[in-house]
Amino acid sequence: MNKKGHVLNAVLLSIGLGYLLEPAGDLATFETIVAIGVPVTLGALFPDVDTAFGKHRKTLHNLPILVGFVAFPYVFGNLEYVWIGILTHYVLDVAGSKRGIALFYPVWKKEFGLPVGVTVSSKHANLMTVAVTFGELLLVAAIVVQLPRWGFELGRLTIGA
Ligand SMILES: [Zn+2]
After folding, report:
1. What is the pTM for the complete model shown?
2. Is 20 within 8 Å of 138 (Cβ atoms)?
3. What is residue 100's three-state secondary structure?
4. InterPro entries in the record, alphabetically (predicted)?
5. How far is the CA of 32 from the CAs of 37, 38, 128, in angstroms?
């Protein structure tokens, strides 16, 4: 996807995440959207730096880079949430774009993409971006809603209640 697509994805995703984490729709919701939205949007733009430095869709489009950004806050104490932007960039390039990305670069140069993707210049690119974002939010909603239930159920079984 192009820059506009990645920004659209990051902004919509952040708004959705804000409401999933703070569903009231009040000031706390807005603060969460801003707190997540800025680093997620910056993170979503980062992988395409490899259009200028390195091999595009390879150098900064792989799982080791994602792991590095997940670990970064624990090691250096900043850049929280940036990994979400990196992850959603990968998801959009894999699911929404025809070409795919080299997930296992530099070990394996093969680019992986889902066959449903459209070309970056397609007139359906924006629709595809919104659809992928919606899918991501459904997945997060399932995790946010279901995980506590599974935990509760597991706890209930463990104590035999
Ligand atoms: Zn990309």
Report:
1. 0.90
2. no
3. coil
4. YdjM-like
5. 8, 10, 26
Report the separation in Å between the CA atom of 1 and the middle of ligand 1, taken as the mean of its atom positions: 6
Burial of 96 (0-12, 13-18, 19+ CB in 10 A): buried
Dist. CA 86–CA 9, nearest whole Å: 11
Task: Say how many Å lie between the CA of residue 65 and the centre of ligand 1.
Answer: 13
Structure tokens at 50: 């490899």
Q: Which residues contact 72 (CB under 8 A, 6 or more apart)?
A: 78, 79, 82, 83
Sequence spans of domains, the chain = 3-159
CA of 156 to the centre of ligand 1 (A): 44
CA of 61 to the centre of ligand 1 (A): 7
Q: What is the pLDDT of residues 55-108, one digit of tens each?
A: 999 999 999 999 999 999 999 999 999 999 999 999 999 999 999 999 999 999
